[in-house]
Design brief:
Layout: H1 23-38, H2 45-68
Helix pairs in contact: 1-2
Length: 79
Protein backbone atom coordinates (compact mmCIF):
# COMPACT_ATOMS: atom_id res chain seq x y z
CA UNK A 1 0.00 0.00 0.00
CA UNK A 2 1.30 3.46 -0.87
CA UNK A 3 0.66 6.69 0.99
CA UNK A 4 0.81 10.02 -0.78
CA UNK A 5 4.21 10.64 -2.35
CA UNK A 6 6.04 8.15 -0.12
CA UNK A 7 7.37 4.84 -1.41
CA UNK A 8 5.27 1.71 -1.25
CA UNK A 9 6.02 -0.42 1.80
CA UNK A 10 6.95 -3.42 -0.32
CA UNK A 11 9.60 -1.55 -2.32
CA UNK A 12 13.06 -2.57 -1.15
CA UNK A 13 16.15 -0.39 -1.36
CA UNK A 14 18.65 -2.23 -3.52
CA UNK A 15 21.56 0.17 -3.02
CA UNK A 16 23.29 -0.94 0.15
CA UNK A 17 26.77 0.03 1.32
CA UNK A 18 27.57 -3.42 2.72
CA UNK A 19 26.61 -5.65 -0.22
CA UNK A 20 25.54 -5.21 -3.83
CA UNK A 21 22.07 -6.22 -4.94
CA UNK A 22 21.86 -9.72 -6.34
CA UNK A 23 20.52 -10.43 -9.81
CA UNK A 24 17.52 -12.13 -8.18
CA UNK A 25 16.77 -8.98 -6.15
CA UNK A 26 17.07 -6.78 -9.24
CA UNK A 27 14.78 -9.08 -11.24
CA UNK A 28 12.21 -9.25 -8.41
CA UNK A 29 12.16 -5.45 -8.18
CA UNK A 30 11.74 -5.14 -11.95
CA UNK A 31 8.90 -7.66 -11.90
CA UNK A 32 7.16 -5.78 -9.10
CA UNK A 33 7.52 -2.50 -10.98
CA UNK A 34 6.15 -3.89 -14.25
CA UNK A 35 3.26 -5.57 -12.41
CA UNK A 36 2.37 -2.28 -10.77
CA UNK A 37 2.51 -0.29 -14.01
CA UNK A 38 0.69 -2.83 -16.14
CA UNK A 39 -1.96 -3.79 -13.61
CA UNK A 40 -1.18 -7.47 -14.21
CA UNK A 41 -0.09 -9.92 -11.55
CA UNK A 42 0.38 -12.42 -14.36
CA UNK A 43 -0.20 -11.33 -17.95
CA UNK A 44 -2.41 -13.14 -20.42
CA UNK A 45 -0.71 -15.30 -23.05
CA UNK A 46 -1.24 -12.50 -25.55
CA UNK A 47 0.76 -10.10 -23.36
CA UNK A 48 3.32 -12.49 -21.84
CA UNK A 49 6.10 -11.75 -24.32
CA UNK A 50 5.93 -7.95 -24.00
CA UNK A 51 5.50 -8.24 -20.22
CA UNK A 52 8.68 -10.34 -19.90
CA UNK A 53 10.55 -8.03 -22.27
CA UNK A 54 9.58 -5.08 -20.08
CA UNK A 55 10.80 -6.91 -16.95
CA UNK A 56 14.11 -7.64 -18.71
CA UNK A 57 14.53 -4.01 -19.77
CA UNK A 58 13.73 -2.63 -16.32
CA UNK A 59 16.10 -5.14 -14.69
CA UNK A 60 18.90 -4.16 -17.08
CA UNK A 61 18.34 -0.44 -16.47
CA UNK A 62 18.28 -1.04 -12.72
CA UNK A 63 21.55 -2.98 -12.83
CA UNK A 64 23.21 -0.24 -14.91
CA UNK A 65 22.03 2.38 -12.44
CA UNK A 66 23.22 0.47 -9.38
CA UNK A 67 26.57 -0.34 -11.00
CA UNK A 68 27.12 3.28 -12.04
CA UNK A 69 26.25 5.08 -8.80
CA UNK A 70 29.24 6.42 -6.90
CA UNK A 71 29.52 5.24 -3.29
CA UNK A 72 28.04 7.64 -0.74
CA UNK A 73 30.46 10.35 0.29
CA UNK A 74 32.49 10.30 -2.94
CA UNK A 75 32.52 12.78 -5.76
CA UNK A 76 32.89 12.05 -9.43
CA UNK A 77 35.57 13.98 -11.27
CA UNK A 78 34.25 16.81 -13.41
CA UNK A 79 34.41 15.91 -17.05
Amino acid sequence: MCYGDRMCRSIQTLRRPDQPATDDEVRAAALQYVRKLSGYRAPSRANAEVFEAAVDEVAAATRRLLDSLAPAGTRKAAG
